[in-house]
């Protein structure tokens, strides 16, 4: 599904991600929505539903030369001015946040082999259902 408002520079995309995961995981539903607003923000909304509780984690990879600062518990700042800010807004799940080095990011960076690091948001307890909005601003 895609919607947009050209005059207001807004849009939305919904992806069904659960078909990409093995059926043994017991994942019933996993959708990711991107909502683009005119105020230098992208909202990434994940909705995950399992048959049984699982510990969930979300990673955002960035090049290692960029500074990562976790402030106010869950909000993360990336780089120097102008900074990118990631702020999760969880529903039905409590999150923790940490940063760490990433040995290898597959896909677009696998050939470059540049060093990466990541911000990881993880559920503090196993859950069967979670909705998390990640507000990404710059």
Short structural description:
This protein is an all-beta fold.
Q: Regions with pLDDT < 50 over 5+ consecutive residues? A: none
Spatial ordering of strands, largest sheet: 1-2-3-4-11-8-7-6
Helix fraction, binned, reads under 10%
Question: So what's the overall shape?
Answer: globular
Number of helices: 0
Largest sheet: 8 strands, antiparallel
Instruction: Give the helix/strand class.
Output: mainly beta
Residue share in β-strands: over 45%
Task: Report the span from N to C terminus.
Answer: 26 Å
Q: For the CA atoms, what is the radius of gyration? A: 16 Å
Mean pLDDT: 89
DSSP strand count: 11
> Helices and strands, in N-to-C order?
EEEEEEEEEEE
Could you characterize the architecture of this molecule?
The chain is mainly beta and 138 residues long. It contains no helices and eleven strands. It has strands at 2-5, 10-16, 27-37, 41-54, 57-63, 68-71, 75-78, 84-91, 95-102, 116-123, 127-137. The strands form two sheets. An eight-stranded antiparallel β-sheet has the order 1-2-3-4-11-8-7-6, with no helix packed on it. It has a three-stranded antiparallel β-sheet with strand order 5-10-9, with no helix packed on it. A hairpin with a 3-residue loop joins β3 and β4. It starts with a strand and ends with a strand. The model has no long low-confidence stretch (mean pLDDT 89).
């Amino acid at each position: 599904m895609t919607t947009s408002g050209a005059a207001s520079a807004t849009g939305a995309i919904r992806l069904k991600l659960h078909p990409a995961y093995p059926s043994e995981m017991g994942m019933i539903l996993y959708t990711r929505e991107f909502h683009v607003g005119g105020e230098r923000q992208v909202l990434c909304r994940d909705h995950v539903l399992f048959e049984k509780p699982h510990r969930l984690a979300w990673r955002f990879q960035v090049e290692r030369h960029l500074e990562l600062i976790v402030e106010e518990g869950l909000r993360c700042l990336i780089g120097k001015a102008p900074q990118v800010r990631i702020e999760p807004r969880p529903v039905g799940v409590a999150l923790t946040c940490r940063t760490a080095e990433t040995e290898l990011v597959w896909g677009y960076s696998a050939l470059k082999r540049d060093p990466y690091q990541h911000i990881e948001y993880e559920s503090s307890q196993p859950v069967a259902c979670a909705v998390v909005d990640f507000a990404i601003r710059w």
